[in-house]
Amino acid sequence: MDGTTFVVCGFHQGRKLKPHHFNTEAQAREHAAHMGRSLDCVVLTTSNTISRASIDQELTANAPPHHDANTSRDGSC
To answer: For residue range 20-61, what is the model confidence (pLDDT) as tens digits?
Structure first.
């Protein structure tokens, strides 16, 4: 499933905190506002997410031809 998630990251005393992912911008903004009360910096951004199956399909489609190290250039063994 392809889609966009909204990601909120925070920094406190020089440490990056674990990012939180939300399905809607409103949820992310509410969380960012809440975090902003006690953190040094809050970042709200988006992330395009794709399923593992989509990634595997894309990698397979764009993979270079397989070369067997045990086969000579002319195809004989």
So the answer is: 989 999 999 999 998 888 888 888 888 876 656 665 666 666
Query: Which H helix or E strand runs over 9?
Result: strand 3-12
Whether the full predicted model's pTM is greater than 0.70, yes or no, is: no
Q: What is the distance between the alpha carbons of residues 55 and 72, in angstroms, rounded to a whole number? A: 32
What is the per-residue pLDDT across 3-14, written as a single tens digit (0 to 9) for each?
A: 788 889 888 888
* Two structure tokens written together for 56: 């595997």
Angle at 4 between CA 16 and CA 39, to 5 degrees: 25
- The amino acid at 68: D
The H-assigned helical ranges of the chain are: 25-36, 52-61
